[in-house]
Amino acid sequence: MINLQQIVSTMSKLASHSEALEWDNVGLQVGDYNNEIKKILVALDINEQIIEEAIEKNADLVITHHPLIFNGIDNIHTQTSKGRTIFKAIKNGIAIYSAHTNMDIAQGGLNDFFADKLNILNTELLSKENEIGLYKLAVYTPFDSVEEVKEALFNKGAGEIGNYSKTSFSIKGEGTFLPGDDTDPHIGKNGELEKVDEIKIETVVPENKVDNVIRGMLKVHPYEEVAYDVYKLPYQSEYNGLGRIGELENPISLKDYCKTIKNKLNIEKLKVRGNMEDKIKKVAICTGAGADFISLANAKGADLYITGDVKYHEAQLAEALDLNLVDAGHYETEIIFKELIGNYLLEAKEENNLEFELLISNNNTNPWSYL
Predict the structure, then answer these.
(1) Cys-Cys with 67: which of 98, 114, 216, 280 at CB 3.0–4.6 Å?
(2) Residues facing residue 206 across a β-bridge
(3) CB of 356 within 8 A of CB of 39?
(4) How far apart are the first and last CA of the chain?
């Protein structure tokens, strides 16, 4: 059995609620944290047709990218589409959870997934949004548990510096302890002073991952009482943010790369501004509506910027900057949310022996049709 709180905790490990932009509303929108979850439906949007699909498929939870509730609501009644959606969800015991800008921003989230799909390598942030403090974690471990403890730290997000991962430093030393009468020591005997050869593992942890890293470490550490230190590193910070910029392995013409975009995103038409014969090497991307970053993409030396919801005058700005621009569509750049979350939840299910059935919505919620 798994309850809603466990699913919410699992989702927040990928995209913490604290990473969302201030104006956004993410997390649990409708539901009871204690309710049992047997079936999860993943969708891009949440509306009446998605709730009807959830009812038909007996889903207990719908996970979406776009939230149902952005701001406060004055009433819930069946004379509005939003009211009917909330009413049906509550009536049928269906919870609604949304991961929006926190999923756009998150490391390993939607923008990283989008960049991977388009073969963009060595990515970094396009736009820095939030500063995240860095902490140093030091833990003392017996020799035979060093690798297991390290992997637990790294799997929860410790040891990441720029494009490097699994960074740490180890120091050999001697630990001493005197187990009391009511203890069950991993090494030594009650009432006898013990000296043990230990390894001190040091690594860095972003502020928003400290709690998860410590929990992961304690879960595998063999000691009954674990000695560890956590302290803030002054003048050192990381950032999270929207969009990504990186490079293709080899230069390619804009015309040919547009074919790649259409193939990878499974779409028939693109809006393109630029010279089709230009060679594309450095590519900036932002899923959804990212036209605000046209100037930033150009300033960072992008040969091409890919986003959605570009207006006429915004495209003219790209033209004035001589920046190649592809508007691949808001829906088209974000529909991969379903694949990303589906993959993530299946991995979490296997790793943690969770019991639920995963369903991917087959509803097309794109309001646009192309003729």
Answers:
(1) 98
(2) 134
(3) yes
(4) 47
pTM of the model: 0.79
Give the C-alpha separation, 349 to 81, whole Å: 34
The tens digit of pLDDT for each residue in 26-82 reads: 999 999 999 999 999 999 999 999 999 999 999 999 999 999 998 878 888 899 999
Which ranges of the chain would DSSP assign to H, the alpha helix? 4-14, 48-56, 81-91, 101-105, 110-117, 146-155, 210-220, 254-265, 294-299, 312-320, 330-334, 337-352
**What CA–CA distance (Å, rounded) separates 332 from 165?**
31
Question: Among residues 359, 370, 369, which one has the least CA distance to residue 64?
Answer: 359
Q: In sequence order, what are the beta bridge partners of 28? A: 97
Q: Closest Cα partner for 19 from 121, 82, 111?
A: 111
Spatial CA neighbour of 202 closest among 236, 222, 172:
172
Tokens of 259: 């074919």
Give the relative orientation of helices 4-14 and 337-352 as an angle to the nearest 10 degrees. 120
Residues 256, 367, 258, CA angle at the centre, nearest 5°? 5
Burial class (CB in 10 A: 0-12, 13-18, 19+), 290: buried
C-alpha span between 175 and 273 (Å, rounded): 65
Q: What's the token pair of residue 213?
A: 């890293």
Burial of 197 (0-12, 13-18, 19+ CB in 10 A): exposed
Q: Which tens digits make up the pLDDT trace of 225-245?
A: 899 999 999 877 677 899 999
